[in-house]
Give the backbone structure.
Amino acid sequence: MNSKRPTLDCQEAARRFHELLDNELTPDVEAAVRQHLEDCADCMAVFEFEEAFKRFVALRARSTEAPADLKQRILGQLDISSAAHDE
Amino acid sequence: MDPGADEKRRAFEKEAVPHLDTVYRVALRLAGDQTQAEDLAQDTMLKAYGAWHQYQRGTNVRAWLLTILRHTFINQYRRDKQRGNTVDVTEYEKFTVFHEVQEVDPEGRFFDQIVDEEVLRAIDSLPEEFRECLVLSDMADLSYAEIAEVVNVPVGTVKSRLFRARQALQRELYEYAVEAGYIKRSVR
């Protein structure tokens, strides 16, 4: 699967895909994983699939918003809380 | 109102209140129903306001709010520790759906046909300790170190739970997509 420059093999690179997607790798390791991806089309295909899935989940999971009256209720309670402090 | 209280309220409204949507979303995934999630989110924000002097400026306020939320959930709201334990995440430790779909849909376009409600149902089916890591990462954008602080486990545990949660979620949604006819199961 891998061609040249065997700094990371496919298994080692694949183990770091999620950390790469989450921006959790050190610059050195990130560079090594990205280099592997450039050299290995098979791994790149898997990585792009995982990237698309993460984007999909984040988008769908963030579609819900807090009900409008919840914010008003909380802000109203802050007034009460502040007034109680003033007494 | 004294100037200190006024300043506190201004700072809280500016820095904490904009995160209410995230607080509510996480509350909903932990509590499981809208009424409880609203109460949990409200309790969280009021506790945070009461403890605003403890918030360290310059740190991630979202992570701080979500730490309060999690404590509040565990201490006051959680009734059933087993909620969500319908998926065995250990089964999917090394599973990526890619190898099943690479012949027909290597870019995973079938996922786009799945509606929000189904994605949320699948997230809710994850065991709590995996679900919370997924939600704190993919809904709340916390770093691994911040998640580790919020749930009080080592960073390595966060990494492993997050990985397994995503793989299990991917599998759940793939199975759903097959059943719904969005993609054909590959014969391998």
User: Anything to note?
Assistant: The CA atoms of residues 67 and 151 of chain B lie 8 Å apart. Chain B has a mean pLDDT of 89.
